[in-house]
Amino acid sequence: MLIVSPVRNEAAHIERVVRAVAAQELAPARWIVIDDGSDDETLGILRRLEPELPFMSVTSTDSLPAGPVSDRLARAAAPRAFNAGLAAAGDLRAYSHVMKLDGDIELPPHYLRVLSERFRADPALGLAGGVLDELAGDGGRRRIRIPRVHVHGALKCYSRACFEAIGGVQECLGWDTIDETYARMRGFRVWSFPDLVAVHHRRLGSADGVLRGHARHGQCAYIAHFPLWWVALRAAKVAQRSPRGLSGLAFLFGFLRAALLRVERVRDPAYRQFTRRELRRRALGLAIARAGGAESR
């Protein structure tokens, strides 16, 4: 397995993340950690730890053009730096799987071993991962709830066959929805395993502010061709998060602003048709399930 970790300003968490990968029951074949212009001690910490892990190599994007990025998440946590790490890895045919791991995710020791076993047991499984717990203010943990058919962008793992079939990771907002849609279009299963629990040391979407994160996710929904009826339902659900009400409005604002500005969307007509058909099917299935539950009461 090849792991690529794009990181930026993770000095508070990165040593804990490195120690967790070092403690895996099944070590990765290679781990490329690529620093994307940190202005804290992240790179220095990584350089200090690098000699301790024979499978880890540390590099940076200093030699790459900055690119048109508008916020930290678009710049660091995903596509451009991740793809730079893939380029540094060379021929991907040397690896059975490709994984993206963010610099604030602490894996339990059995994570890579169990995930590899799940892939071996299910040849149709193309994209998978665990779930995340956030650290709560009272010192406990709070589970980040996601659908089973979605995998957090912070710890996605692809079979090499799936990764090649979807054409890799696109360098745009919404990449972690687009990749899953293409995986299903290509006949692969996408699944998150609730018994594989990692710790997220930074509140989800908080790097540039919670409301900005919700607005960004609304823009992602536009880019990925999610219809307005779905966005309205999603905004109502997001509105239940803190700050209540404003979170949902921020999500809806991000979608509508992207539509007004005519932000570039996925151009593939087959992708658009598949996405909207899939959402209609899920909505119908949910409605039927709820109706059946109401009748049984």
The CATH superfamily name of the largest domain is Spore Coat Polysaccharide Biosynthesis Protein SpsA, Chain A
Sequence of secondary-structure elements: EHEHEHHEEHEEEHHEHHHH
**Count of helical segments?**
11
The residue fraction in helices comes out at 40-55%
Question: What's the gyration radius in Å?
Answer: 19 Å
Number of strands: 9
Summing up helix and strand content along with how strands pair, one would put the structural category as alpha/beta
**What is the C-level CATH assignment of the largest domain?**
Alpha Beta
Rounded mean pLDDT is 89
CATH topology of the largest domain, what is it called? Spore Coat Polysaccharide Biosynthesis Protein SpsA, Chain A
State which percent range the strand residues make up. 15-25%
From the spread of the alpha carbons, the general shape counts as globular
* Largest sheet entry: 9 strands, mixed
Count up the domains.
2
Reported CATH architecture of the largest domain: Alpha-Beta Complex
Low-confidence stretches: 63-77
Explain how this protein is built:
The chain has 297 residues and is an alpha/beta fold. The chain has two domains: 2-200, Spore Coat Polysaccharide Biosynthesis Protein SpsA, Chain A (Alpha-Beta Complex), CATH 3.90.550.10; 210-296, no CATH class. The protein is built from eleven helices and nine strands. Strands 1, 2, 3, 4, 5, 6, 7, 8 and 9 form a nine-stranded mixed β-sheet that branches. α8 packs across α10 (246-260) and α9 runs antiparallel to α10 (246-260). The radius of gyration is 19 Å and the shape is globular. The termini are far apart. The model is unreliable at 63-77 (pLDDT under 50).
